[in-house]
Every structure is written in structure tokens, then in C-alpha cells.
Specification:
single chain, about 400 residues, alpha/beta, Aspartate Aminotransferase, domain 1, 12 strands, globular
Length: about 400
């Protein structure tokens, strides 16, 4: 039976090129990068070469790159680090209602610690209202954190306009770019981004590594304390092998970016066209424009998304009912609810996300089984049959 993995927004397979590269890294760089002997310095040089590489890719300085264990740690370091270090500037934080749980729950934690929090809503397709954003800014606002692209819908925010507003108001701007990094070119100086979180395992690199970009001159506190690693902002021996694997993965992303995005656009059209020709009642929740090319969030009224996932899993088709970080929860997606979708519609939604190893045959097989599953599950739902 064919295996069809269509959950690339949750995590990507490690590319074979990255595996080969990392195998060599394990043998070559065994010493601690902080050691002063020559073996340690070899590891240090490899670490700093990776730092310089990533800095160049986003038009930053090497000292502005802080390696972390991934996007969640980077998000926590950004929000907690900035708010705790800048209490003299104010105590007000703004995020959007569709942020990843790493931002959303960190913001709630800060609120419980006494900081003021505003959560700005979004429209049906996940876009924030810039005019409304400006109205909730006050003279105590320290930081605004808005994700570059949403992990459930694929919605790409107007980061340039948000950053310009922050600059005008002299507010720090952070963006969670985990889903965007490697899928588009990012220049942190255009638009003006103060802090940015990225992760390796979304771009065919190893899990357990990422980085936080912080513009020079911005004061932030570490999350935990220990040695002087990462300019005393992130204690602990750096995960060198993962960092070097991350670098190898990004090199491949840059090489394949244009070709892969074109492929995803074709897959998206083919998928939706086949669905339209065979199913009369469905809702595409992802926006048509300003959306990641490889993401489709779609609702099939009358079915339960978790049941559909299990049905498709029996055919070795692997998709998602939302963010992998919250998919084990029985609650309806917070993101879809924030977009104004009813519990019934949100509870019937699934996310399909393509990737490097997806083929046209995979798409066609998946569509056939999705159509079959929707028809089967609707037939088993008497309430749907009566209402339709």
C-alpha cells in the first residue's frame, strides 16, 4: 500500500543529503566548542561558520543569531526575554489570536505574572486589521508579536506594514517565522524585524534546533542560566550536530525554493479541482492569496475531522486536523475558532500540507481516498443527511 505523508507543516522528513552530512559531522566535530584546545576550536569554527551563514541569509550580523532548541524556545526567549528586560519601557504585550501555542501560551503566562496582554482578532481567513492594531497600542506597549505565516491556515501576514507601524510607535516587533523560513526569502532589515524565531525540522533538518534573531542593541534576558554560551543569553553546550544539519537543510531549501513553490501551486490547484468535481459541500478556510503554497485547510461539513484522520490513516494517508502541537486535544482548533468558524465547521476541518517528497500520484491517491472517506462518514451521520 502507498504511504502518503501530507503533514509537512507539522514536521518534515530529514533529507538524505542532510543525514549524510550529519553523519560526517558526528565523526569530525566531537569536541566541545567552548574548549580551548585545537579539537574544541575546530568545533567552535564550525559553529561560528553556521552562525555567519544564517546571518548572511537573512541580512543580519552573526552576533544577532542565538541558537536554540527550536521554535518554541526561541518564541519563549523572545517574549519573556524582552518583557522582563524592558519593564522600564512598559508592561504591555500584543499578539494575534491565531499565534502558535508557543507564543499564545507564553503570552498568557506573562499575563499571569502581571504583564498586560491584548490579543488582536483576525478575519475569517486569519488576517489582522492593521487599523485595529494601531488602536490598541498605548504608551506602555513594549512588544508586538505577529507570526509571519500561520501553521494551520497558511495565511501570510503583511509583515512590512506591521513592522512599519512598530517602528513608528517605537515598539519592538517579533515574528514567529517558523513556517515561512526557507519557503521565501527573508531580509530582517526590509521589513524591519527586531526579533525572529525559526526552526530546523520544518525544512528537512533535524528536530531540536533553531535560532532566535535579535537586532543588535536590543536588551533581553535569558530564560535560564549557566555558562557563557550564545553571548550569555542561552546557557548550555550548543547542539553542534543539529545546528550543522540545520545549515545543510537550509542550503537545500535555498537551492530548491523556486522549483518547489511552483510544484506546490500546481498540487494545490489539482487537489482543489478534484475535490470540487466530486464533493458538493466543502469550505476552503485557507486564503486564495497571501497564503503558503503548500497548505490547504478545508472543512467537510457533516464529518468529524479526527474520525476522518483515522479513516485516512487506515489507507496510509497522513494529514492533520490542525497544529501538531495541539492535535491531541479534543477541543476545536483555537485558530479556526478565532477566525469565526462555528464549532461544527472547525470540527470538520483538516489540513493538507505538501512537501519536497510529495508526488502528483500522492495527490491523486489522497484525493480519491478523501472523497471516499467523506462520502462514507457523511452516510453514517443521519443529522447531516437530513440537513443536506
Amino acid at each position: 500500500m502507498r504511504n502518503v505523508y501530507l503533514d509537512y507543516c507539522a514536521s518534515t522528513p530529514v533529507d538524505s543529503f542532510v543525514i549524510e552530512q550529519m553523519s560526517a559531522f558526528f565523526r569530525k566535530y566531537y569536541a566541545n566548542p567552548s574548549s580551548i584546545h585545537s579539537a574544541g576550536q575546530d568545533s567552535w569554527n564550525a559553529l561560528e561558520n553556521a552562525r555567519r551563514y544564517f546571518a548572511k541569509q537573512i541580512n543580519a550580523r552573526p552576533e544577532e543569531i542565538y541558537f536554540t532548541s527550536g521554535g518554541t524556545e526561541a518564541d519563549n526567549l523572545a517574549l519573556q526575554g524582552i518583557m522582563n528586560a524592558n519593564k522600564d519601557r512598559g508592561n504591555h504585550l500584543i499578539i494575534s489570536s491565531i499565534e502558535h501555542s508557543a507564543i499564545y501560551n507564553t503570552a498568557k503566562y506573562l499575563k499571569n505574572k502581571g504583564f498586560n496582554l491584548d490579543v488582536i482578532g483576525v478575519n475569517k481567513q486569519g488576517f489582522i486589521d492593521l487599523k485595529k492594531l494601531e488602536t490598541i497600542i498605548n504608551d506602555k506597549t513594549v512588544l508586538i508579536s505577529i507570526m509571519m505565516s500561520n501553521n494551520e491556515l497558511g495565511t501570510i501576514q503583511n509583515i512590512k506594514a506591521i513592522s512599519e507601524l512598530c517602528r513608528k510607535k517605537e515598539i519592538f516587533f517579533h515574528t514567529d517565522a517558523v513556517q515561512s523560513f526557507g519557503k521565501s526569502t527573508i531580509d530582517v532589515n526590509n521589513p524591519n524585524i527586531d526579533l525572529m524565531s525559526v526552526s530546523s525540522h520544518k525544512i528537512y533538518g533535524p528536530k531540536g534546533t533553531g535560532f532566535l534573531y535579535v537586532k543588535s542593541g536590543i536588551n533581553f534576558e535569558p530564560l535560564f542560566y549557566g555558562g557563557p554560551h550564545e553571548q550569555k543569553k542561552r546557557a548550555g553546550t550548543e547542539g553542534l550536530y543539529n545546528i550543522l544539519g540545520f545549515k545543510s537543510a537550509y542550503e537545500l531549501m535555498v537551492k530548491n525554493m523556486e522549483k518547489e513553490n511552483k510544484k506546490y501551486i500546481l498540487f494545490r490547484k489539482r487537489f482543489l479541482s478534484n475535490i470540487k468535481d466530486n464533493i458538493s459541500d466543502f469550505i476552503v478556510n485557507s486564503p486564495e492569496e497571501n497564503c503558503l503554497a503548500n497548505v490547504i485547510n478545508i472543512s467537510f461539513p457533516g464529518i468529524d475531522s479526527d474520525t476522518m484522520l483515522l479513516e485516512l490513516d487506515s489507507h496510509n494517508i497522513f494529514i492533520s486536523a490542525g497544529s501538531a502541537c495541539s492535535s491531541k486535544s479534543i477541543k476545536v482548533s483555537r485558530v479556526l475558532s478565532a477566525c469565526g468558524l462555528s464549532d461544527d465547521i472547525a470540527g470538520s476541518s483538516v489540513r493538507i500540507s505538501f512537501g519536497r517528497f510529495t508526488t502528483q500520484e500522492d495527490i491523486d491517491y489522497a484525493v480519491d481516498k478523501i472523497i471516499e472517506s467523506v462520502r462514507k462518514l457523511r452516510a453514517m451521520n443521519p443529522e447531516y443527511s437530513l440537513s443536506y
